[in-house]
Design a protein that fits this description.
There is one protein chain. With 105 residues, the protein is α+β, with helices and mostly antiparallel strands. 35% of the residues lie in helices and 34% in strands. It is globular. The protein starts with a strand and ends in a 9-residue tail after the last helix.
Length: 105
């Protein structure tokens, strides 16, 4: 399992506009092949927003990083300082601690 963390600041868009956009785009993210889950992040106090994604495998994550959907985040004028971090999940201890994406379907 692979984990992706994407963070950014809002630039020229209000929180309310951003939240509406999130609601409108949620289904597009739900339809990403190989993605297990996305948790949407918001810290208005530090102007930090983004998501934590879990993918079934590295290939699915790579496909997402090459997609138009991801490119739209990286290139959006209303997002500043886009940061992307990739991680491998430690599945054994994550399962013990009830990691959301490792629960039986």
């Amino acid at each position: 399992m692979q984990v992706l963390m994407v963070t950014f600041g809002l630039d020229g868009v209000s929180e309310a506009e951003y939240y509406r956009g999130c609601d409108e785009e949620a289904q597009a993210f739900a339809d990403v092949p190989g993605m297990i889950a996305k948790v949407w992040l918001a810290d208005p106090g530090t102007n930090t927003y983004g998501g934590i994604y879990t993918f079934r495998d590295a290939g699915s994550l790579e496909d997402y990083l090459a997609s138009d959907l991801f490119r739209s985040i990286k290139e959006a004028d209303e997002f500043s300082e886009v940061a992307v971090q990739r991680f491998a999940a430690l599945e054994g201890p994550t399962r013990i601690t009830h990691g959301w994406s490792l629960q039986p379907a």
